[in-house]
Amino acid sequence: xxxxxxxxxxxxxxxxxxxxxxxxxxxxxxxxxxxxxxxxxxxxxxxxxxxxxxxxxxxxxxxxxxxxxxxxxxxxxxxxxxxxxxxxxxxxxxxxxxxxxxxxxxxxxxxxxxxxxxxxxxxxxxxxxxxxxxxxxxxxxxxxxxx
Length: 147
Prior knowledge:
- The chain is mainly alpha-helical.
- 69% of the residues lie in helices and 5% in strands.
- The protein has helices at residues 5-11, 14-22, 25-33, 37-61, 70-91, 107-131, 139-142; strands spanning 65-68, 97-100.
- The chain has a two-stranded parallel ribbon.
- The longest helix is centred in the middle third of the chain and has 25 residues, at 37-61.
């Protein structure tokens, strides 16, 4: 994921700093759910950062939906959706709907698998179609097609 938006946000992430102390970002999210003030503030900061990133992308691509996937979606989606939805209209005229992926942390693997399957099927059908003989002249008219 080198060079991705995920990396850019993660490098300065306060959640990453707290997670280094405990060993896992999910511990920060769990602490926020239990009411820990420092963890809640970190989640609020991440929500604002994500809202700014979504606003920047939305200004260019104008998506109708942004999906929080992977670890951030499955680990903190419940904590991030409301603050992101609240912040977006304040910082951008483009406010796409934000949702949490149903695929959780396996979203990237499932997406890669789906793309690979689609490419394989396209190749199979292209080869099959190219090996079919062309219909003789007038064949469609005899079937009632193209009148």
